[in-house]
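Pair request: fold both.
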Amino acid sequence: MYNVEAYVGQCLDSLLPQAGDNIEVILVNDGSTDSTLTICEEYKKRFPDITIVSKTNGGLSDARNYGMNYATGEYTFFLDSDDWLAPDALPKMLAFLRDEKCDMVQCAAYYVDGDRYGYDTRFVHPDTPAYIVDRNEAMRMLLDQYVMKNFAWGKLYKTELVRRYPFRKGVYYEDSYWQHFMIHHADRIGIMPEPLYFYRQRQSGISGAFSLKNLDLLKGSEERLPFIKEFYPKMYYWALTRFWDDIYYAYFFARKSKDKVIRNTFRDYFFASNEKFRDDFDKYLFNWLGRYTFFRKHPKWLPLYYTYDTYKVKYDEWKKYRKKKLRQWREKDK
């Protein structure tokens, strides 16, 4: 918890009624300078079993790692102090994990922006029954980022999994450096499409507006590539595809920034990544990822130098040409 006096009350009001005899609550005060700690101490008067620990400010990763030093339970759930839970969220997840003998369980979430609540129904519906996947399917879902999310929150883990890999300190989007390890060491992973977690989106938070912080998210994905190549080689092409798409879109958004440092940083990272992974990109993406192939063949059309509208017209022309050529090649092979 760090300076969340406006939100921590709602968070604790949703959590503490669910904390019976078998659920321990550990609140980590990460050097707050507002009334966050005072609010938590008032709650402790009503709920004496709460454990409150304080430390100098070190960031989210450091706070989570610090809190794990006090955890004694068989399972671990991370709740960000500006978010909140649905009633009975933890008992529902715990029951499903135990009944199905899972190593970890993920529930769905509402994404809250002011008074607007969003739920992504493109790939799953909240009424879909909970189901089980193995680590291979879960890893594919993580790379897709449609069902399995990078976030540590919204998941109930066996504590032994969490203890294997402390969170990376000194980075933003620390979950992207961590989540794939949890999946890799889990045999059975539960997916609960019911939205039991409320994720508050704040512009001042880590996941807020586009900034230099987003570079850590890209670096987390980059660091994951050798891991996927070694342990999930059949998914390496897809991991590369997602990574190239991510660095391209980050580069594209950065060029709209008024901050020259942001523009230059993401531009340099985009080109450096293309050089670093040139052989793999050419091997795995050249015949499949249209944008990559287009820019390799026609680098002058990189949107750094041209407006998006001009680039899109040229790219659409190229896609039509490529589709025509593919059709000709197929007919020739018949």
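--- second member of the pair ---
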Amino acid sequence: MMRIAGYMKYYAWKLARRYLGIGQEEGLDSVRKNWEAIGRHDPLWGVLTDPSKRGGRWDEAEFYATGKAEAARVAEYVRRMAPGHSFGRALDFGCGVGRLSFALAEHYGSVDGVDISKDMLHLAEKNNRFGGRVRFTLNTRCVLPFEDGVFDLVYSNIVLQHMDKKDALGYVREFIRVVRPGGLAVFQAPDGDRGRGEAKSTTPVMTPGGVFTISMNVIPRREVEDAVAGAGGRLLDVVADGAAGEGFESARYCASKDARFPGGVDRRVA
């Protein structure tokens, strides 16, 4: 009976979305509502959407271990990109439950985690074993709540893809604003959809609280380049990765506002 009710909710959502526009609202408020719901009902799966882990089947130790492995790769990468990099203060943008915030704290003196979901942050605070070295902030605005030039690293992975392109590009500009001269902003975004002709796709997620959505949004590389340059930054590296999953081409960007770094990306390349 519960399964039948679930199917009825799902198809009602599809009809409402198609004919009434429900579920298609734009902007950060829609993002917040969806991720707060997912944060209440299945927060670990909401961060890493492994189909086999849905429904609370992530083991916490295994889940947080993925953050340690990723943070180690990031630390190695920034050492290569910026010899003499200062491992002082890092920003984990879209921190969720702190998977990367805690891991980055093993490499940086302090870490600020920012997220749009208070339910995700509640779990992050509960699991924080680093005291004041790791701080969490709820932010529902397109402006980051930090002064200019205060972070040695700004890091974001599998986050910008879940918001509208204009908001994602606004945050890219914010990354450049809050990173210090000599620091690095390293972030990921889908830059193509493997020829399907869709700039956005939406997947319904059924929870005990109703049907919510996870959206995937393409952010073209040219527009990312323009956002970085317009904020006074300089792209140092663009590397293809598979972080966005099947059906999407994805890129990891590394930017700085320090012209002393060698290399740089030719913005004329498509």
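Observation on the second member. The two ends are 53 Å apart (CA to CA).
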